[in-house]
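It would be a great kindness if you could assist me with a short task in structural biology. Thank you for your consideration; the sequence and its tokens are set out here.
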Amino acid sequence: MGFSNDISLSQPALGQDIQLGMLYDVRTSRFYGGVSLWDNSVVNAKQELDEAQVQNADFVLSDSLEQARESVYLDTEGSLNLDLKLCSAIGSAKFLNDRKSTTHEARLDASCTVVRRTRRIPQEVLASMKYDQYLDDARYNHFVAEVVEGGSATLSFVRACSSADEARKIAGELKVSVVNVPVNGGDKVEFSAKNESLFDDVKISYSGAIAENVSSLEDARRVAGEMPKTLGKQMNALSCTLLPLSILDRKASRIIRSLDSGLVTKTAAALKDGNTAGLMLQDLISRDEFEQEARRLLPELRDGTKDENTNATALRNAVKLFQQRTGIAKRFIDKKSNEANVLETTLASLSAEKFENHLGALKVQSLTGGAAPRLFLSLGGLSIGIEKHPLQASIESGTECHGLEPGRDLRLCRSSYRDPAPPDPLFYRGTPPSPTTCLRS
């Protein structure tokens, strides 16, 4: 990790109302609204304008949140700040705050951005500060020297899926259905009418500076058609350039440390794994604790006056512990998913062989006569992979089934068929079994 005192920064506005001269703290990613070294009337009256009716207008399609963030030039560190809620995206960028609501989902974001102008503080104004006392305030280390303005909005399409394969398939179909077509020198998004049923289970939302009620495909068509014209009239902050206070006064130099990109990436990856595990296992309570610790440590790591080794070690330990916990949860889930898949396959084959499913709805029937019963013997845990159930083996050998080890996933019990709380799961065909040894899973 190196020290960087006099760095300039360029970053997306994330929907915030950013004004020229506004002060900023790079350690906490916070803009201080209403705090400036100059009067707004002076800055706005003498600002340099690089204006055009439309500098650029296009739609950008992205099929993941990571890709959408990259398209607005949000780097790994900025993305991590969003995930840790060190900063937030609002208005036209609020969709960048989204998190997956299901383990597997197909996503498509269609973003339209119209750049109108770029404003800068001219050189002569930089030297005529009115509120230079803020230079001595350690909270501030940068100021807004340039703002790019225009309009931006995004239509988001999200559909919950049952598997990763289905998510990839649906995402591809969504991208094909949302067709990008240039019209009269500009761009617009059109929706293919060939597969409208694809959108039946899709959650559609809109992110923009001006609120729009978008909940259906018809709403999305209407808003998408109006986007370029509507956004061409807006003058909202899209991005900004931040300069260090040290260019105004060397005494205002702050010690800002550049974070280790590997540590940032590892922290971001750990948080992503934790979110996935949290969706798979809702009671993963350690996630909030990890976020709080990371939110506390990242600003201190950026602060050059704080001990680097102590804070970096603390963050590494927090990441390592969190990765261990999420690793345990994911291994548990993988094991249970495998068991569920085996049982699902088994139940399907039993149903195909005309076994009857009386789970939770056993009926009193004749205990004599009829064909030999067909009994489903449950398997679970360590017994999933065995070829023959112990009770089946004992039936074939004509001996009683004894000696099942306690603590195993199989347990024999004595139970009357007329017991009001019958054992489960029980599948049979023909005449139900007489009161006998049965299996409780």
About this structure: Residues 353-441 form one domain. The mean pLDDT is 79. The chain has three domains: 9-257, 259-350, 353-441. The CA atoms of residues 205 and 214 lie 6 Å apart.
